[in-house]
Fold this protein.
Amino acid sequence: MNAGKIADRTFVSLDENTIVAEAAKAMYQSEGCSIIVTRNDPESGSRVPVGIITERDIIFRIVAQNRGSFKVVLKDIMSGPLITVYSDATAEEALSIMKEKNINRMPVLSRKGAIVGLLTAKSLVRKVPLDKSARSEA
């Protein structure tokens, strides 16, 4: 099974100059816990992913530090550089990257660089079948 088939297709992406308050509202409305941060690439004219923010980032980097969510933009609190995987990568390859980099979320890109989904530890657990030998050992 490949990363593109496992990835959640419902995700939120916002421009890096979006204020944190607007991002928090988007998270709330989508019932999500992360946002892929993008910027406009002048060469291709398309949006490219450059970072990610999570609920934890907002709590630790804004709320706990008494920074104003209406004054800070996403590029100031995002995690980057963004670690991504192509949609044709296997589930094992994607899991290996996530484990090596100690991350729980990873955007999935088409070979042209478009975001096609968001791979999460949860989506891997839900959608990747266990092989028969793993089930019999458990």
